Amino acid sequence: MTEEEPAITEQTVENFHGCYLLRSNSENKYYRGRTYIGYTVDPNRRQKQHNRGRKFGGACRTNNRGPWQVVVIVYGFMTNIAALQFEWAWQHPDESRRLRHSTKKTKKENALAYRLRVMAEMLSVDPWRRQALTVQWLSVEFQIDFPTNLQPPSHMTVLSGAVKTRKVTAPVTPAGKDTGRAVKTFPESTADVAIVAEDIVLSCGVCKASVEKSEQVTCLVSSCSTRFHLICLAKIFSLDDELLLPLRGSCPTCKTPVLWADLVRFRNGHYRDGIVEIQGAQALAEDVPEDAGAD
Questions:
Q1: Rounded CA separation 294/167 (Å)
Q2: Among 254, 256, 261, 252, CA closest to 292
């Protein structure tokens, strides 16, 4: 891991996209210790499917070879496509052009140790080293320290504990139509009447054009909370290093330094119980060295 012990906490994440590593605890010594890598939007449900078998949604390779234990999950991908690309490379390191430098499995490595080493190598190369990813250990007994030369970038979070997912959907009108508009209720006589509010058009703090929720990112500072198009703010943050996925920058409205990773985490459901305070955002931004993530 890092020099400090990772925090043990239960995370609730909205719109989850993650890749998980399973280990078999089968009583059959032929299957015990085998590993499986997959993608999921709900890790708890997926683990149950693997353990119940193929008829209940589990994979062919895990059928009747468990029970399976989730060792670690890497999540925070913006889309399912990004997560599936990570999954494929993790499953096929010998074929991935991103991992040509990676050495093959040695005789001294068991399946789990090899998969964890590949994960560490993936987090240290493009494009993943610049993404707002979280590494969450669900089985502390298998938790390892990352090698000194393969430490995750400082903007990535390493945690231990359970993870829950929560799907976010647009409000539904009484007629059952998903409008994406705000709905409020108030009592009239003895009945509650649902009223569909006027559409609120939000504008991007950079280009001033309207911005939909699906394409927006919000400033973490509660007194600001300006909304931006993802691409607009990414361009502003990337002016210094000319990269599409920046490491940090300052909010164009309130000028507060903030990590790009934290903006993405907030967009994906983190920090819902408390917005990062100004001093916290500044401390995080100042903590990132200029060469973070560099070769």
A1: 35
A2: 261
